[in-house]
Amino acid sequence: MLDIKSMTLEELKAEVAAMGEKPFRAGQLYQWMHVKLARSFDEMTNLSLAFREKCGSRFAYTALKTVRVQKSALDGTKKYLFELADGKLIESVWMKYKHGNSVCISSQAGCRMGCAFCASTIGGLERNLTPSEMLDQIYAITLLTGERVSNVVVMGCGEPLDNYENLMRFLTLLTDENGLHISQRSITVSTCGLTEKMRRLADENLQITLALSLHGAFDEKRKKLMPVANKYTIAELMDACAFYFEKTGRRITFEYSLIRGFNDGEEDAEALAGLIKHMNCHVNLIPVNPVNERDFVQPDTAKVAAFKNKLEKNGINVTIRREMGRDIDGACGQLRRRQNKLYLG
Ligand code: SAH
């Protein structure tokens, strides 16, 4: 069955015409799905029962089941564990900032990138999410919180550029003026660094922010954390980032998880500065979130501050990521991991 929520308005118009229905029905369906955020055809009350039934037999209609919600007592961050139609689990996070509400979504159930510090990858990749399942995370959270989402970050479970076509379609639908109409500039896509795909994304000429998970300034160290570093060198990554900036004019965000005694030294900060100081960029320092199955430890605050200082002395923009939802398994994939363990033992 066709996944109706992953279809563009144009595609839907063609489908509706093929069903022998009037063209404006496509617009109504689209509005129910992407503006009114209907969870089923049944909710589309200005459509006849006969037409709704016809749609029900022709199209699959995705909706997420909320398995768990955890609210942080520290900062109001909410973490959602959702179940997909086939029982797979994903997680999404809602964060409230002064400038608006931000949702962090997953792009895959599981992940096959194998980063050493990340909980999402422990059980490997289960499957790619469809565009509708990516949208559903934002729609469900909008309905559950009753608040508008203004920013979307694709930084949850999964490697978005490893699910490229679905990601593109998701971005088209999310930014569509007939849908939620989130501005491209309010969207960030984070990658562990698949250079061919980064270049392809640059060529799409979107105004979204690209975030690169660097986590190391030396190839040898990066390889210890991220298997993907065996495939692409840091030099290749820097070229791809420069290309992205050249094509889109959007400054790159570098994510750098600080791990005590591993990549938090002066020589690391120095090397990082050397790599990026000539670029139009921003660095997000993330004290590593301890994951049960891993024994990575955060540097103390003085060390984090020293690292930041070193970068700033080189004229680099740096923020230390506020640890949102620290008390609620805030790190990628931890909630899902815990639940899967309960299920699977
Ligand atoms: N696959 C994408 C997006 C998902 S991860 C990517 O690699 O960018 C989002 C960010 O959180 C990445 O920078 C990732 O490296 C980081 N991350 C994952 N687990 C973490 C942990 N335990 N502590 C700190 N950062 C973590």
Describe the structure.
The protein contains eleven helices and 14 strands. It has 345 residues and is α/β, with parallel strands linked by helices. A ten-stranded mixed beta sheet has the order 3-4-5-6-9-10-11-12-13-14. Strands 1-2 form a two-stranded parallel ribbon. A hairpin with a 5-residue loop joins β4 and β5. The longest helix is centred in the middle third of the chain and has 15 residues. The two termini are 34 Å apart. 41% of the residues are buried. Bound molecules: S-adenosyl-L-homocysteine. The site of S-adenosyl-L-homocysteine has 18 residues, from β10 and β12.
Report the total helices: 11
Give the strand order, joined by hyphens, for the main sheet: 3-4-5-6-9-10-11-12-13-14
Provide the gyration radius in Å. Answer: 21 Å
State the shape.
globular
Spans of 5+ residues with little confidence (pLDDT < 50)? none
Largest sheet: 10 strands, mixed
* Ions, cofactors and other bound molecules: S-adenosyl-L-homocysteine
Assign a percent range to the helix content. 25-40%
Features:
single chain; 345 residues; alpha/beta; ten-stranded mixed β-sheet; two-stranded parallel sheet; globular; binds S-adenosyl-L-homocysteine
